[in-house]
Design a protein that fits this description.
Length: about 425
Amino acid sequence: MKLEFTRMTRRAVLAATLAAGMSVAVGACASSGPGAGSSSEAKTLVLWDYQQEPGKEYLKRLSDYTAETGVEIERVGIKYEDFLGKILQAAAANKLPDVIMIDNPWNSALAAEGVLTDLTDRVEEWGEWDQYYDGPAESATWDGKIYGVPNESNNLIMYYDKTVFDEAGLAAPTTWDELSSAAQELTTDDRYGFSTSMIKSENSVFVFEALLWQAGADLDSLDSPEALEAMEFLESLQETGAMSEEALSWDLRAGVTELVNGRSAIAFGGTWDGGWIAENMENELGIAPLPAGPNGEASNLGGENWAITTTSKLQDEAWDLVTFAVDPDQSMGYLIESGQLPSRKDIAEAPEFAEEPFATYIEQLQVARARVYGPEYPRMADALTQAFQSVLSGQQEPEAALQEAASAIEPLLAK
């Protein structure tokens, strides 16, 4: 999962389309849509994803589906940063593909805009929804209905320098207090105790939302004492010198790079980076769940979902492709190859995921929460970013920054 969230909304795309009178053409799929690649005679499903270098196991699921059913798949890979905009443009022009693979925060946004087919009845008849962890299932749900099926998951996790911890006689922190104490104790002239992303992007929102949830707050309660506690905890890490002000310019990879290079003792990062960290870190790597806050454990969920568009004329075939792709027999090779986490409990119970680091990743997955905030989420994320960036840069006090964010976000939640 990539975490940069495009700021386009369908309303903006519709307005621009109508104003310009444009006809939308999207890459190799300019002719794709309800009339092309979607007729019952052609039996060709048009699939859009943002995999620029898809692995052989990802592609094998598609070819296996064609071999089993005879239904061809016309796959189009679009750059991640262009993907959501292309979907919304195609929706405005009534030229959507049949199936899309989407970053899971987009699921609720596209469902709210009427782009995605309601799969609730199909899911109930399918009878496998109870195999999905709460977070992945929630990511595909909007307004009480199901609009997608999780393909795979990932989440935020804690990485730490076990060599440094052992030398100091410390165990991995399990609470905010322990994290703060360890980070301060392990801060030296050439090493910070803690690093993560606080850049102006979804990377940093991915981190701060987890702190909010651990404190017992959410985007609808930013003016609460719990949200203030989360913000003040983050601020304290910087004020004590345990977290560098450079975090304001780091994405998640840069934050864990500090750990790899010995310039940090603890880092919050994505499970997708675990293999890279282990390969490049000279000291022994430790991996543990995020320390619990006052309200308990929580992490942020990432991953992709399969979804079917409302304009597809091959709804049955599209549903068959989705359920075929997420079947345990089909999913296992893809998950092992990609290093991603299973969204389903039955797959997570396989021996391949019983050893570290997957065992810890899946433990964290069980308390990971989805970002299900509807079509205005990009604007909400911007307001939240502005809040913690202004606090960490010394421009605002925590309470004032959160009040400003709450005022900006509250009307967006109602849409």
